[in-house]
Amino acid sequence: MTSTPGSAARTGATMPRPADTSGRVPRFTPAERWIHRVTGALMLVCLVTAACLYYPPLSELVGRRRLVVTVHEWCGLALPVPVLLGLASRAFRADLSRLNRFAPYDREWLRAVRRRSYRRPAGKFNAGQKLYASWTAGAVLVMIGTGLLMWFTHLAPLVWRTGATFVHDWLTLALAVVIVGHIRMAMNDPESRRGLRTGSVDETWAAREHPNWEPYRDSE
Amino acid sequence: MGRRVVLGMLGLGAAGVAAGPYLQRGVESVTSQDPTGLTGLLPGGGGFRYYSIVDSVPARTAANYTLTVDGLVDHPVTYRLADLQAMRQRRIVHDVQCVTGWRVPATPFEGVPLADLLDAAGVQSGATAVRFSCFDGSYTESLTLDQARQDGVLVALKMQDAPVNHAHGGPVRLYVAPMYFYKSAKWLSGITLTPTVQTGYWENYGYDVDAWVGRSNGRDDAPTG
C-alpha cells in the first residue's frame, strides 16, 4: 500500500475533545474576550480623563485641557462600539440573552447574598453579574446621552444642559464605585479572570460557581 | 428582566436630567455650609476648578515677571511686578461664573484697573480692541476697547485677599467681572492694542466673544458684576 500525502497527519474524522479528561470548560470565545478587553480599556480611559478634567490637583498635573476633553468625548462615544460589533458573534448573542433572562435560581442567589449564605445557584452568569451587566449598559447609555447634551450645547434648551451635567457628574461617581467593585470581585477570583484571559475555566470551579450552567448546550 | 433594568436606568437618567437643576440647587445649599471643604470633591461641590490648555506653565516671580503694553499706543511700556504694585489698586467683590457651570460666590479681586494702564500707555485713535497674551505660551483673550475700560476689569495682583497663586494664574491675571471666567486670562504677560478684535483661544472653538454672564454662550446665569 502506498501512502497518500496527508494521511499520516490528519483524517477526516474529528473526535470531540473530552472535557472531563482535560478538566477545562470553554467559557468565552476570542470575540467575547476582545469585546470585554476593548470595552474595559475604553471605560478606563473615560474614568481617568474624567478625573483629570474634574479633580483640580490632577488637572494641574496634566493640563492640556482640550486634548483631554477630546480623548474623553471620543472614548465615551466609542464605548458601545465593541458590543455592537460583537452582535455579529453567535456566542456573544447567546450570552447576551443569558444575561437578559432571570431564572428562579437567580432569585435564590440574590436571597442567599442577603442572608450571607453560600448556597448560591447560578447559570453561566450569576444574578449579580446579570444585574451588573444590565445596570452598566443602562448607565453607559445615560452617560452618552447626557454627554452629547453637554458636548453639542445647541442641541437642547439650556435647562436640559444643567440637568445633563448634574446626571453625568453623579452617575460618574456611581459608575466608578460599581466598577471598582467589579474589579475587586475579579481580583478575588483568579479562575474567573482566567476564563476571560484564556477562554476556558476549570471544571470544578464551573460546577461550584455556576452549577446550573450547561456548557455543552447552547441554552441553560 | 435585564432589558427592564436597562430601560429603568434610561428612565432614571431622563428623570435626573429633568430634576437636575432643582437637585443641583439642593446640593449647593448643603455643600455651601460645609466647613471641612471635603464636599469640594463632590460634583457641584463649589470652589474653583483648575483649567489649563498647556502641559505645564513656568513659574514667574517678582524677580522675572513682566507685563508688556504695546500695539497701537503712544508709549509702549514694560512693567515689573513692583511697578504694578506701586500703582492705584482697586478691590472688587463679585461672584465668579464659569461657562461650564460652576460658580464661586463673593470672591474679592484686587489690582490695577485696566483703564489706568491704557491711559498711561496712550491709546491711539486707530485702536478698537485689546488683545491679551499669557506666559503659558498659548492662551489668548480679547476685549473691545469699551469693554476694557469698564470698572470691573482689573489686572489682578490679589485674589481672595492674597497674592494670586500660580494655579490661579499668578502672579498677575486678568479679571473681567461681568463676563464668563474664560475671559479672565491667567498668567497675563501682554496687553496689545489692535485695530480689530482678535478672537481668543476658546473663542476659536466656538465660545462667544462678548461673554456677558447670563447673556451669552446660551446660558442664563445671574449676572456677576
Number of helices of chain A: 11
CATH topology of chain A: Fumarate Reductase Cytochrome B subunit
Please give the order of strands in the largest beta sheet of chain B: 2-1-10-5-6
The CATH class of the largest domain in chain B, by name, is: Alpha Beta
The overall number of domains of chain B is 2
**Separate helix tally of chain B:** 4
- Based on CA inertia axes, which overall geometry of chain B fits? elongated
- The tally of beta strands of chain A, per DSSP, is 2
Supply the helix-strand structural class of chain A: mainly alpha
Order of H and E elements of chain B: HEEHEEHEEHEEEE
Provide the succession of SSEs of chain A: HEHHHHHHHHHEH
Distance between the termini of chain A: 50 Å
Uncertain segments of chain A? 1-7, 216-220
- The CATH fourth-level homologous superfamily of chain A: Transmembrane di-heme cytochromes, Chain C
Tell me about this structure.
The complex is a heterodimer of chains A (220) and B (225). Chain A is an all-alpha fold and 220 residues long. Chain A contains 11 helices and 2 strands, in the order αβαααααααααβα. Chain A has a two-stranded antiparallel ribbon with strand order 1-2. The relative contact order of chain A is 0.13. Chain B is of the alpha+beta class and 225 residues long. Chain B contains 4 helices and 10 strands. Chain B has helices spanning 2-31, 81-85, 114-121, 145-148; strands spanning 66-71, 77-80, 90-97, 103-113, 129-134, 140-144, 153-159, 162-163, 173-176, 188-194. The radius of gyration of chain B is 20 Å and the shape is elongated.
